[in-house]
Amino acid sequence: MSSVRHVREVRTLYRQILRLHRRLPTHFRALGDQYAKDEFNRHKKAGAAEVQTFMTEWKNYAKMLEEQLVQDSSPVGKALPPEKVENLTDEQLGQLFELQQETTKPISEELQDLIEDDKKR
């Protein structure tokens, strides 16, 4: 794949993910946008094999999120199968732990106000 074509594909996927995040509650959107931004930046100089896995996993995420958002009433997300967790690097496990910590933190009063404003719309 040519470099220009690859860059276009990465940018298209990134924009698709951010558009999907717009349909999430405010606190999930902020967390998801920041996580996606960090991950896409982290993989700018990754090797070909890692980039292929990265793109596949983010495409799967976008597809899953799109399907879940269409169903409106179902919860968003899914559990990681044990075999995927076993294949994560130490760095990825650390990131997963940080993400888990972030998603289970008590919600600040300011964020709670944003969530309430979202519900009123």
Percent of residues in β-strands: under 5%
Give the proportion of residues in helices.
Answer: over 70%
Determine Rg (CA atoms, Å): 16 Å
Order of helices and strands: HHHHHH
User: Whole-Å distance between the termini?
Assistant: 43 Å
Question: Explain this structure to me?
Answer:
The chain starts with a helix and ends with a helix. It is mainly alpha-helical and 121 residues long. It has helices at residues 3-21, 26-42, 48-70, 82-86, 90-103, 109-120. It has six helices and no strands. Helix 1 runs antiparallel to helix 2 (26-42) and helix 1 runs parallel beside helix 3 (48-70). It is globular and about 45 Å long.
What is the topology?
Layout: H1 3-21, H2 26-42, H3 48-70, H4 82-86, H5 90-103, H6 109-120
How is this structure best summarized?
The protein is mainly alpha-helical. Helices cover 74% and strands 0% of the residues.
What labels would you give this structure?
121 residues, mainly alpha, 74% helix
